[in-house]
Specification:
With 401 residues, the chain is of the alpha/beta class. The chain is built from 14 helices and twelve strands. The chain folds into two domains: 137 residues, Aspartate Aminotransferase, domain 1 (Alpha-Beta Complex), CATH 3.90.1150; 247 residues, Aspartate Aminotransferase, domain 2, CATH 3.40.640.10. The chain is 42% helix and 12% strand. It has a seven-stranded mixed β-sheet, sandwiched between helices. A three-stranded antiparallel β-sheet has the order 9-12-11. Strands 1-10 form a two-stranded parallel sheet. It starts with a helix and ends in a 7-residue tail after the last helix.
Length: 401
């Protein structure tokens, strides 16, 4: 017999992917340049030239077994050392290569991190709005993901509800800053309070509570936003990183787990990742890409387009009367819809070839996400369609009824 759990999941496919597929199909009808597709968070800027040169050099100058052979289960040691050194330089940490485990992107990193610290029957908390794939990442381990309701005033943390939900069954707290879908960056004060509460509950319950920090947007920060590194605030932190956004290489599927050296049994946890891989098939990310990212560990693509796009959209949305928390990073914006049901709102938007994602899937009904990782020229061309949509459907023009 086939497994019913996965067959049942066929009826709950990713809303984001379905909208992206619709946009592609619509593009075949009218030209994709005429579809204002804000559905999928696929980086729109090229990878750094230095990354391209590193790949070419590795392919042409290095031993084929080094670049095409299996890597060690925990990752290539020289790569892990370079990543540790980069983190130490940038964030004042004291990682060694022994604290790093190479993965197939942040998804692979989270898959390992959850299995390190949560078993069937345990609970993992996250905060709305949240990336919807957290549910399969956690729930398919036998643990249960529980969602703390959003603080919609600023999309920081709803600490009152967090305190109520942080029971003895909770073994981990999963956060994402800068945040998909809101673009919010947790402040130093937020992280200090989070660490204080978790440390107190650790003492009260007599067991570790791990902080799993999902950080693929760490380098996409906007002017005036302080860069804070989560692991500096809480000892039992497991960072999950991907180069997909910082280097614009999502198809290469490369990232890592970095266990805070101050974490209890830090090196043992990394070694355990190698055993988890045996069961979930995330073994040995491609050697070529491990070696290539190590050569550009301190670099990023030119990410400035995202802030430019954000400012254009934020200004227009506010003029049109939307309630919207201004993003501090990422390439997402998360306004409140102009009617209670964001699904209906986004369905109406499709009639204007605006592809928007309802916030229900992110644990925030009544809101919608726009992924503005597209060319600035296309963002600007989408504004007349946005204005027409709002004026025709809701009678609003530049915020006036």
């Amino acid at each position: 017999m086939i497994v019913d759990k996965y067959r049942e999941m066929l009826g709950a496919k990713s809303v984001i992917r379905e909208l992206s597929e619709y946009a592609t199909a619509r593009g075949r009808e009218i030209g994709y340049g005429n579809v204002f597709d804000y559905s999928l968070g696929n980086p729109s800027v090229p990878a750094p030239e230095s990354f391209k040169k590193a790949v070419i050099r590795l392919l042409t100058e290095c031993d084929p077994m080094d670049v095409h052979g299996y890597s060690p289960s925990l990752g290539i040691p020289s790569v892990k050392e370079k990543i540790a050194g980069s983190l130490n330089r940038r964030f004042g940490m004291d990682y060694t290569g022994d604290h790093i485990f190479m993965t197939s992107g942040a998804a692979g990193a989270i898959a390992h991190a959850v299995r390190l610290v949560a078993q069937p029957g345990d609970e993992v908390l996250t905060f709305a709005p949240f990336f919807p794939e957290y549910h399969p990442y956690v729930d398919l381990t036998g643990a249960r993901l529980k969602v703390v309701p959003a603080d919609t005033e600023n999309f920081q943390i709803n600490f009152e509800r967090f305190g109520e939900m942080l029971t003895q069954k909770v073994m981990a707290v999963l956060i994402n800053t800068p945040n998909n879908p809101s673009g919010t960056v947790y402040t130093k004060e937020t992280l200090e309070k989070l660490a204080e509460i978790m440390s107190e509950k650790e003492r009260q319950y007599g067991h570790e509570i791990y902080l799993i920090s999902d950080e693929p947007y760490r380098e996409i920060l906007f002017a005036g936003v302080e860069e804070v590194y989560v692991s500096r605030f809480y000892a039992n932190t497991i960072s999950c990183y991907s180069y997909s956004k910082s280097l614009s290489i999502p198809g290469e599927r490369i990232g890592y787990v970095a266990v805070n050296p101050a974490c209890k049994d830090a090196v043992t946890l990394v070694n355990m990742c190698g055993q988890i891989s045996r069961g979930i098939g995330h073994n040995c990310p491609t050697s070529l890409i491990q070696l290539a990212v190590a050569e550009v560990a301190d670099e990023t693509s030119d990410l400035s387009v995202y802030e430019r796009n954000m400012n254009i959209l934020y200004e227009e949305l506010v003029k049109l009367g939307f309630t919207c928390v201004k993003p501090g990073g990422t390439f997402y914006i998360f306004p409140k819809a102009l009617e209670e049901d964001a699904k209906i709102f986004c369905q109406k938007a499709k009639n204007y070839d605006l592809i928007l994602v309802p916030g229900d899937t992110f644990g925030c009904p009544g809101y919608f996400r726009m992924a503005y990782c597209i060319d600035t020229e296309k963002v600007e061309r989408s504004l007349p369609a946005l204005r027409k949509f709002v004026e025709t459907e809701y009678g609003q023009k530049n915020g006036a009824n």
